[in-house]
Amino acid sequence: MLMRTDPFRELDRLAQQLMGPGTWSRPSSMPMDAYREGDQYVVAFDIPGVSADAIDIDVERNMLTVKAERRPATKSGDVQMELSERPLGVFSRQIMLADTLDTENITADYDAGVLTLRIPIAERAKPRKIAIGVGSGRKEISG
Fold this sequence. Notes:
The protein is built from 1 helix and 8 strands. It has one helix at about 5-20, and strands at about 30, 30-35, 40-45, 55-60, 65-70, 90-95, 105-110, 115-120. A hairpin with a 2-residue loop joins strand 7 (about 105-110) and strand 8 (about 115-120). The protein is rod-shaped, with a radius of gyration of 24 Å.
């Protein structure tokens, strides 16, 4: 078997062992991508191995909070762990949303370990044309 050694991966693993898994009061971070697609923003979080019922999404004012918990898999009593690199515990990410986003209509999908949130842009923030009045609306004030 070919084994490659990555000293930084070992440092990450050691730091995680020393700090322990994330807890609800001190969660670990989760990676994400964010981009604009048409008239909505899309935010995708990588949280593989987490069941959908262990994900919590909240919006309070303009603060979006996503929390997820990866629990250890139940194993029979005669299992001896040889290698454990997949992090367990609580993961969290907070994002400050702009006032121009419609937080009332956020949708969430979870597929293949990726949580995807779609946040529409509010109607008041979309570009619009302004009509220009011509001529007859002017009045002169004399005095």
